[in-house]
Here is the input.
Amino acid sequence: MLKSRLLHPDILAALGRGGHGSKVLIADGNYPFSTKLGDNAELVNLNLSPGLVSCTDVLAALLTAIPVEAAAVMQYAASGPYALAADPPIWEEFRALLGAAGLDLELEPIERFAFYDTAGADDMALTIATADQRIYANLLLTIGVVMP
Here is the structure.
């Protein structure tokens, strides 16, 4: 029996294969999971029903299992049908969870198509598909180091 908050066997296996510098994508329900999946990434589907499971649920569990050295988000559009005037509210939730885990990290915005390229790169260890309905709720984590 495991004691950590993260119990999902496929996620644990993918994290175990990843190492320092490997990346983990927590993707919202609008993300093109199968067409933007990295060649080395394991895809784990947690998109049970709209809103279940959320990106913040996944982040909270992951933070109990891995060190995180960087966090990036998909930059929101400044114009067009999905434009926002300010950071999406979900980003503040990401910041709060990272801060509660003792991490002082800035969320690095990456332009949408560059984000897809980054999330499809060879250093991706894991993509977690959620059913989060909030827009711009994609979070790309870089695994850090466990210090002796």
Residues 9-143 form a domain with the RbsD-like fold fold (CATH 3.40.1650.10).
